[in-house]
Amino acid sequence: MKNSVPVSKIMTKKLVTLTANDDLVTAEQLFKKHHIRHIPVVEGNTIKGMLSYTDLLRISFADAVDEHEEYVDTIVYNMFTIPQVMVSDVVSVTSATSIRDVARFLSKKEFHALPVVDNGELVGIVTTTDLINYLLEYIEG
Fold first, then answer.
1. How many other C-beta atoms are found inside a 10 Å radius of the C-beta of residue 45?
2. What digits encode the pLDDT tens for the residues 19-45?
């Protein structure tokens, strides 16, 4: 396995993003529609935070099986804003960062996604799923 393969080879480039003005109902709809677990919160092309599906689960009944589920979620979600729920002290990498370095970093932290930022602009996101898929591709050769 090459040690210096850049993360740009495996990162997601077609990003689903939110802004601080969006609401949590919209966020949950995006998580479910795109089958993703992390959404960068941006202002223009600048990252301001990261919202994870786990962040939503902490404040809601998002996976509750209940006939009034949508109503309950809306009430809970309207009590919070995206900036209140997102992680704002975001750690990022550049597109030139090696996959190996990203894997090492994520293996030691409690989060599972890193925004990829070049010259202050969000250009992608890399997740533990991206790393696993890369490893599988390598193994299955």
1. 12
2. 999 999 999 999 999 999 999 999 999
| H/E element, 60 | none
Closest alpha carbon to 94 in 27, 7, 4: 7
Structural domain count, the chain: 1
Please state the pTM of the whole predicted model: 0.86
Domain with residue 80: its CATH number is 3.10.580.10
What span, in angstroms and rounded, lies between the C-alpha atoms of 45 and 54?
Answer: 24
Contact 79, 114 (CB under 8 A): no
Q: Is there a contact between 51 and 36 (Cβ–Cβ < 8 Å)? A: no
